[in-house]
Amino acid sequence: MVMYNDEEYENLLQFDQDWSREETDYLFDLLARFDLRFLVVHDRWDREKERTVEEMKDRYYAIARKLLEARADNPEEAAAHPIIKDPFNSRHEMDRKLALGDQMERTNALEREERAILDEVKAIEERRRLEARALSNRAAAAFNPYRVDQTRASIDVDEMREEAEAEHEEGRPSLPTAEGADKRPPAGVYARGVHVVAVAGEMATAAVGAGGARGVRRIETAVEELGVKPPVVSTRAVCTAWLKLREEVTEMLELRKALAKRQEELCGTTPASEAAAAAAPAAKAAAEVFQQVGLLDTPRSKAPEVTLGPDGQPIGVRPAKREQKRKMPARYEDAPPSPPRRSAEKRARKS
């Protein structure tokens, strides 16, 4: 334990005005008596001003550092001492005790929750590591020198330059129209994607005619069913292909509509079936024969064929429920009841 004398106190140890000489002497006396056991010294402290364990440690080690630096022959010797090399930090000591108190008050549920969080963090880090490795492998495969050379060899720079020059005549790109041709707009800035969406609306409106918004919506639904969305990267090739697809979808819907109409005419479910039957030569001759014998000349759907089973009943058709005969009562209500047989025998014996 480091001790001081009056001269050293007067010259070196009056740097902290919060501690008086009397309190410092009392502190060192207790420390010398209890062999630097600060908890016991704090328990035996008997002065008007209360001191914490951290304050006592901070006062003692601060005085010890000053005395060791002053008594050392050279600075290197003093710097090698543990008290100077690892100085006491009262703020760190208080934080350490608070953390230790929180650790002692933790329950098993909190420990399980923290362990689950740490496991989840490890799983996330492992997943990110695997994703980064897979991305690195894909990048290495994409930028493989052999693959890059093959791609460069398949690209004709002169051909691409000619296409670019043909497309950007006088510095103005071409825009598609509803008729399928390209036009050169006036000089300026144009959003090709917005222009293509407007052209698609014009094409749909012109195709449906009197169908109106319902027909346009039918075209949009058919395109969505194919999994095709409006162009995101509005290049000339992408926009042209998208408009071509919408045109083909419109033609497909028209064919479906014509097919459904023709099927209804053949089945005789529409008023136009009579005119369609009269338009055919065979149907016209059949209609004349029907009129001569007094039959209707409207085509009728053919009756479905029914297959009979061994018992003569149609297979697959539920037989009609037979009407059960109602049983007549044993006797009429107005008729007198017949006497019992035993009574007749008794009367015969008496007579």
How would you summarize this macromolecular structure in one to three sentences?
By secondary structure, this protein is an all-alpha fold. Helix content is 62%, strand content 1%.
The CATH architecture of the domain at 6-103 can be given as Orthogonal Bundle
What summary fits the major beta sheet?
Answer: 2 strands, antiparallel
- Superfamily (CATH H level) name of the domain at 6-103: Homeodomain-like
Helix content: 55-70%
What count of helical segments does DSSP give?
A: 16
Q: Taking Cα atoms only, what radius of gyration do you get, to the nearest Å?
A: 54 Å
**Order of strands across the main sheet:** 1-2
* Percentage of residues in strands: under 5%
CATH class of the domain at 6-103, named Mainly Alpha
Outline: flat
Question: Helix-strand pattern, N to C?
Answer: HHHHHHHHHHEEHHHHHH
Query: Strand tally, please?
Result: 2
**End-to-end distance:** 152 Å
State the CATH topology of the domain at 6-103. Answer: Arc Repressor Mutant, subunit A
Sheet/helix structural class: mainly alpha
Q: Which residue ranges are poorly predicted, with pLDDT under 50 across at least 5 consecutive positions?
A: 297-302
Mean pLDDT: 75
Structure description:
The protein has 351 residues and is an all-alpha fold. Among the domains are: 6-103, Homeodomain-like (Arc Repressor Mutant, subunit A); 108-155; 172-267, no CATH class. It has 16 helices and 2 strands. The protein has a two-stranded antiparallel sheet. Strand 1 (175-176) and strand 2 (182-183) form a beta hairpin. Helix 11 runs parallel beside helix 13. The longest helix is centred in the middle third of the chain and has 35 residues, at 108-142. The protein starts with 5 loop residues before the first helix and ends with a helix. InterPro entries: DAMP1_SANT-like (IPR032563), Swc4/Dmap1 (IPR027109). Residues 159-168 have a biased composition (Acidic residues). Residues 159-186, 299-351 are annotated as: Disordered. This is SWR complex protein.
